[in-house]
Amino acid sequence: MTCTKCIKHEIDATNIPVGRLATRIAVLLRGKNKPTFQPNVDGGDSVIVKNAAKIKFTGRKLEQKDYYRHTMHPGGIKRTPAKKLLAKDPGAVIRLAVKRMLPDNRQRTNLMKRLTIHA
Predict the structure, then answer these.
(1) Model's pTM, two decimal places?
(2) Tens of pLDDT, residues 2-22
(3) Domain ranges across the chain
(4) Which of 15, 30, 46, 3 shows the shortest CA–CA distance to 101?
(5) Which terminal residue of the chain, N or C, has fewer Cβ atoms less than 10 Å from its own Cβ?
(6) Under a CB-based contact definition with an 8 Å cutoff, are residues 119 and 90 in contact?
């Protein structure tokens, strides 16, 4: 379902910490900034993120933070350092942060389709 009153928000990610950027995006995608917000209704807007390669990690997170995934085989946990993931695909860092801030239900798939990230 496409929203007829949806707005396209453009966010410049230059020198913004990843978590603060992800919370701002998640609020806009869900529509929590609108007075008509209902948790069971998809009434959010679409978000375009520019300059994703210029996001900022605070502290020593760039060296210490790891992203984990599992291959679904015994002993199949894979670890990717944040520095390597940021160099390979800066949009993936933001996409993972936003995805983990959204509710884990059927709405999340539709919400993530409205997120566009430009490196």
Answers:
(1) 0.90
(2) 566 678 999 999 999 999 999
(3) 8-59+89-117
(4) 30
(5) N
(6) yes
